[in-house]
């Protein structure tokens, strides 16, 4: 089982970062391991179902996620529950906390693989991947929102 958390202060508002993470269909433009991201169903105003196709090292997979957006300005959150035949569970959460310097981005995930072999395979890489995910979203924000 893996429980990881990453924090980063960014010069963008919590709403801007929230909108960026919710822009799922553009993930393949800036996340190198994401080959395709597609919204399959909009369940309600704050919940949707999306499929992601990823390629990570020699592992290629497609998994489905239920995404719940929590908008409580000036702070925002996104809860993600993913399912795939390799996972017992894969739960992640984004929190965007507004502050006087922009916002604090917190990304957490909790993962348990069905086969310990896959978990051992991923453990060595996931610690750096979590930081990389937060950094890639930050770089995307710099490109879209142009730091003044």
From TrEMBL:
GO terms for molecular function: ubiquinone binding. SUPFAM superfamilies: Bet v1-like. Pfam families: Polyketide_cyc. It comes from the Bacteria. GO terms for biological process: cellular respiration. Residues 10-116 form the Coenzyme Q-binding protein COQ10 START domain. Belongs to the ribosome association toxin RatA family. This is Putative cytoplasmic protein.
